[in-house]
Amino acid sequence: MADSGKDAPGRKEARRPLLGGPLWHLTRARLLEFLREPGALLWVFVFPVLLAIGLGIAFRSRPEEKAQVVVAASTPDAKGLASSLGSARGLATKVLADAEARIALRRGKVDLVVYGASPPQVGPPPAGAARPQPAYTLAYDPDRAEGRLARALVGEALLLARGGAEVVAVNEATTAEQAGRYIDFLIPGLIGLNLMGSAMWGIGFVLVHNRTKKLLKRFAATPMHRAHYLLSFMLSRLLFLVLEVAALLAVGWLVFGVKVHGSLATLAVVSLVGTFGFTGLALLVAARPQSIEAVSGWMNFVMLPMWVLSGAFFSYERFPEAVHPFIQALPLTALCDALRLVVNAGAPITECLTQLGVMAAWGLIPFVIALKIFRWR
């Protein structure tokens, strides 16, 4: 019989207002479900507040920043020149050895380096020749606004130091140092982020997925050593290491002219130890969760603070100096610092030992803990 559209006898439903009754109870039930989920409260309310506080501190209002200028130690009367330039408005100066000054400029730690003049002329100048002027070589990166500003301020300061009566002859080394560009700073940071993300997500998701499918329980029942199973995840991630690092370096070189100033062998060692550190941390994060949602929350909880604090996109020196030791103890910070030492400054492996130690500790200690608390069921 066709439905007449009317309620059958005995099944007549009382009319209730749309905004009351069941709607209220269902809405209340959904709210209680949300409030009783600790993970939801963390990611919706707590974490955005913490993220806003962290970024607010990093990009807080700061006093006027001075251009960082270094006077090379080989410059005649280097200390006197540094003192004279330092008294000018907008300049902060110091004296460094020539090699240290070059490295500081390459790393982007300073904006301009003043090198000394050519050896002074012996005897009186030839008849009709202009009186020799003191000459300096100013090395800076013209692609950086900080470098151009430092060049203008130093030129003005040199002129004022001579009373404005004479022109100070300078040579400009504007192409000698190109590793102070932002892209040179960014590429090692992106490599670090890629190694962290691929290790954390590649291991965490697979382990938890196998746990939810009860595959770990079956593996645990086999004669294998359980440490071998976890080590296999670490080694498998290391096999992708070469492709991940090479791809970003190739793009940086071909598109932006980013050069690797250090040894490729040192770069490989740093990347290898960095990946080892993240795989150990990933195993610890995935040791207990029993759902993809849970491990996703823990992964974000571990990685997002490092995205903000570790200097992948901007220098962690923006944060107060008191927290620098804690930031430097993070594995991503150690990896980015070591990569920049090798790629930008051409540092040997001996200058990366501190960072290598931090990354190795993050790989070994979490792995041992994960092996003890790992849930196979």
N-to-C SSE series? HHEHEHEEHEHHHHHHHHH
Radius of gyration: 30 Å
Please report which band the strand proportion falls in: under 5%, 5-15%, 15-25%, 25-35%, 35-45% or over 45%: 5-15%
Largest sheet: 5 strands, mixed
Strand line-up across the major sheet: 2-1-3-4-5
Shape: elongated
As a percent range, the share of helical residues equals 55-70%
Average pLDDT metric: 76
Which segments are poorly predicted (pLDDT under 50) over 5 or more consecutive residues?
A: 118-125
**SS class:** alpha/beta
What is the number of E strands? 5
| SS element count, helices | 14
> Separation of termini?
55 Å
Quick rundown:
By secondary structure, the chain is an alpha/beta fold. The chain has 14 helices and five strands. Helix 3 links the parallel strand 1 and strand 2.
Could you characterize what this model shows?
The chain has 377 residues and is of the alpha/beta class. 58% of the residues lie in helices and 7% in strands. The protein is built from 14 helices and 5 strands. A 5-stranded mixed beta sheet has the order 2-1-3-4-5. β4 (135-140), α5 (145-161) and β5 (169-173) form a beta-alpha-beta unit. The radius of gyration is 30 Å and the shape is elongated.
Q: Helices and strands in order, then pairings?
A:
Blueprint (H helix, E strand, L loop, with lengths): L21 H14 L2 H21 L8 E6 L5 H9 L4 E6 L1 H10 L4 E4 L19 E6 L4 H17 L7 E5 L8 H31 L2 H6 L5 H14 L1 H16 L7 H22 L6 H18 L14 H5 L2 H13 L9 H21 L4
Parallel strand pairs: 1-2, 1-3, 4-5
Antiparallel strand pairs: 3-4
